[in-house]
Every structure is written in C-alpha cells, then in structure tokens.
Design brief:
By secondary structure, the protein is of the alpha+beta class. The protein has one domain. The protein has four helices and seven strands; from the N terminus they run αββαβαββαββ.
C-alpha cells in the first residue's frame, strides 16, 4: 500500500524498486524492505546503529543537467564534511527504467530526524533510512 503523498504513484514505485548501491572497500546494494547483512557488518565494524542514503541530485525528482547534479552533490558532500560525519559514496539506480543513476551517500550514524532535515534541505521527495535492524525503509518528505 502506497502512502498519501504529493509524489506521483509511479515515482514512488520506482523508488521502491531502485537498488541503492554502496561503494567503498566492500560494495553492496540496499533494497527497500530487505535486510542488509552487509550493512549490519559495517555497523558492527564501525560502531554505528543507523544510516541514511541521501542524494542531492534531481530536486523533487525533476531531472536537471549533469552539471547541476554535480554541483548539488558537491554541496551535499561539503555539508557532510562540515558535520564531520562518516559517509560512503553510492548511487541509486533503478534496475530497468531509463532514469539516470543518482550519485548518493550512505551517511553512517545519521538519525532519522537529521536525515529528514537534510533531505528537505536538498529538495528531495524521500530518503532511505536504515535503523539498527538493517532493513532500509523509504521515508517520504512530501
């Protein structure tokens, strides 16, 4: 069942189907509603118990130029660095539609409220948040 939202149903469905790839030393993919044993191992190794997967790209899912997306993603990286949080590069990519992959970050230790505020600041419809159980959930911001 999809939530009440101003976000079009097809867009919500695409978010639910997207694979959220985490790069780094041991790459892995997150999928909404499916436990990530790889992320749980990262939690244990780095001593975190939550994370957020966030992008600065394509505000409110309106496709913008590659240059603008790079600028937005650089601004997000600068904000994360300013906050001195641990983050790993990633990309959100739907397995079959033609929407370009969106550069993203897995931000370790970011609680839900902070993640929602950051997503709002970067004009996102939704973020992916993962609690101590290692199950990614889609959190709608609009």
């Amino acid at each position: 069942m999809l939530p009440d939202s101003v976000i079009p149903t097809a867009t919500i469905q695409a978010y639910l189907e997207t694979h959220y790839f985490v790069r780094g030393e041991h790459p892995f993919a997150l999928q909404i509603g499916q436990i990530s044993h790889e992320l749980l191992a990262v939690y244990k190794r780095l001593r975190f118990d939550c994370a957020a997967f966030i992008t600065g790209c394509n505000p409110f899912s309106h496709e913008v130029s590659e240059f603008e997306n790079q600028q937005r993603q650089s601004a997000l990286a600068a904000e994360l660095s300013r906050r001195s949080v641990t983050f790993i590069e990633g990309i959100g990519q739907h397995p079959s539609n033609n929407w370009p992959g969106e550069e993203s970050f897995l931000v370790l230790g970011m609680d839900l409220e902070a993640a929602k505020k950051l997503g709002d600041h970067f004009e996102q419809n939704a973020i992916v948040w993962i609690g101590p159980d290692g199950v990614p959930q889609l959190v709608f911001l609009r």
